[in-house]
Amino acid sequence: MLWIRQLSLVVGVEVHAVSIAISAFFCGLALGGWYFGRRADDIANPMRLYAALEAAVALSAVVSTLMLARAAAPFAWLEAHLGIAAWALPFLLVGLPAVFMGGTLPVLMRSRGAIGGHVGHVGARLYAANTIGAVIGVLAVPFWLIPALGMQGAAFAAAALNVLLAVAALIASRRASATLPFTPVEIESDVLTSTSDTSLARRRGALAVWLYAAAGGVALGYEVMWSQAIVQFISTRAFAFAIVLATYLCGLTLGSALVARRVERSRDPWGMFAILVAGAGVVAAGTLYGLGDWIFISQGWLASVAYSVTHSTTVAMCARFLVAGLGVVFLPTLLLGAAFPYVLRIAVDAGYVGRGVGRVVALNTAGGIVGSLVTGFWLVPSLGLVRTLGVLAGVACVVALIAVSRGAGVGNVSRGGVVALTVLLCAAAVATPPQRLATLLSQARGGELTFYEEGRGATVAVLRQSSGTHRFERLYIQGVSNSGDAMTSLRYMRLQALLPLIVARTQPQSALVIGLGTGITAGALLQYPGLTQRVTAELLPGVVRASSHFKGNYGVAEDKRMDIRVRDGRRELLRSTDRYDLITLEPPPPSAAGVANLYSTDFYRLASSRLRDGGVVAQWLPLPTQNEAETKALIASFIAVFPHASLWTTELHEMLLVGGQTPLVLDAASIRQRFAQPGVAQALKEVGIDSPGALLATWMTDRSGLAYYVEDAAPVTDDRPGIEYAPWVGRQAFAPTLRNLLALQNEPPVVGADDALKAEFTRSRDALRAFYGASLAALDGDRSTWARQLNTAMRLDGDNPYFRWFAGKPDNN
């Protein structure tokens, strides 16, 4: 969990980069299972080897965590000079500790001495116990370890547990029962009928291992597919993914535990293995076919119960995630978990226990690597999520059919069961339309689907929605709203680009936008004629293709003046030596998993290093997506890096931080000249900014006011990304935050303002204050104040299209 997050900082969050780097972890597990499984059979006291492995995990994992925290820049340099060879760095840092981890299960199996020959029973118990620990670890990371200790502190805590395990293993190794003979451990099995059958049984055991490797590929393929398919029922918060992953692991644990006592008594282990693997595929496909309103109703009911008991919005939302996990991933993983003990029973019945278990673990993990890469890089982009699930379930049925046709002692009931499950799968695959998930997304979010793409790493959708008399397009990534082209979005996104260009101290010539989204921010750069270099970094190709569905972005995706680079924004800054007068950021909300990387002091230092003299960074500051404590943390991060910072209000729900290393000088003549450029003036007039005075009226405060507001708030850093793990945001959190920020407003330090500019500024500021006052009164349910303040705003600036949009009046333009 920690390394996945660190790798996103080292190699970028592109799905290819992260998937390939994480495969190093699984490669390490596979190598460790194979190597130390062989070693375990030649050691008299396996518990001592286990203690050494845990100690090695503790040391190597801490070293890797510390080095990964500093590996981003070296990796970028190595990749620029060595190409693909640079990947040896993350492979080594992540793979080496995983080698020691992979050796623990076969060594523990050997330490149990395959008690009475019950390999399946012992293996099931150890597998279940290990996975229970994994569930606890997965949940502890977002709910406790990172919020309390940070990334490196969490790594030290995990290492401390490894050390405790090593000590406990050393104590256990002193018992006489810990010493085992060197000779091979022959396992009695009803599958073997005579000595002459040993070779045949071993070949069948090897077949079982290879089939389980294929099943491992299917299982991780399911996980890749589910990670995208389930998002419309959850969110992009780290809590959501942790709960779904924990549900996945719980299914494996419970499945293995349920058959632990039955596996040795089974007279048809091959048949049971086949039925479980095929059944998992059929249940996965059937669940997708059966998804509908029932899951939304169940989520709402359990969330209501959880809130009534705990009065915690976070607990209530986690209850929603749990329903999604149980409804989509639990049953298939329950069956997959139950298959593991049967493979041990079949494959380790005539050889060394450590070697046999290590082989099962190694090949199953290798199959998982292949399955995850094939699913993420080929199946999902080529076939879509629904058809990908059909292919994976089909592979599972093929594995089952091979098992019942080549295995020993398979009964007619098992053969018939596998054939029936295969027929059911075909029926479910035919009955489930390819657009099933798109339809569910439309039902869940409301609106007409105009664009939908299931690509590498995320689903991208555009829905045509309405609010009162207004109709607009809205972008959904991973089922979560990422803005749209309504008036509110047009206003803050155009200001996101044009405001810092207009007020900049020096004449700007180059600009970088991190995050294309709807394309409105990037498109606004096209309206500023003085720019000679315009760059946008966007992670998802699907977002680039979807941008043509949004109005107000001036066709940015097709405009040759815009250089769109499909890569992670942080990685763009690490790899490119380009410098900019403006870097403006509009990433997803900071509460989304991994996005805090673009709101941290470490990122701002990187961005600052890519600025030209006098350049600025403009950071989007959404207010409704976090509590006030998190808003303060975000501001604290920004002003910790930029000694000259200011805050501007770009829309009722959004603000803008502008900062640089040199003082901001608001020169009236320069601002008026830049504002008057035809493209700039028209773009801003369309969103209610009709003069330089109206632009300056969005000023809130300078760095001193921001420092006063944040007080002792801890900034967001790469090591302590607390904003990502903050409590869920209540509906009542927005209004107090906005009020407190509005209270900071002071006079902008304008130089050379004439009477006309001052009059424009005063009128626009009074109108904006009245409009915000009306909006806050509406949130409080105070209709009389709302009407009075709105009338004042309309009297002062009745032609403002932004105000008229809220008031439900047609635009005079």
Short key terms for the protein model shown above:
single chain; 813 residues; alpha/beta; 8-stranded mixed sheet; 4-stranded antiparallel sheet; elongated
Describe this structure in words.
This protein is α/β, with parallel strands linked by helices. It is 62% helix and 10% strand. It has 29 helices and 14 strands. The protein has an eight-stranded mixed β-sheet. It has a four-stranded antiparallel β-sheet with strand order 1-2-3-4. A hairpin with a 4-residue loop joins strand 1 and strand 2. Helix 2 packs parallel to helix 6 and helix 10 runs antiparallel to helix 12. It is elongated. It starts with a helix and ends in a 6-residue tail after the last helix. About 2% of the residues have low confidence. InterPro entries: SAM-dependent_MTases_sf (IPR029063). This is Spermidine synthase. Keywords: Membrane, Polyamine biosynthesis, Transmembrane, Transmembrane helix.
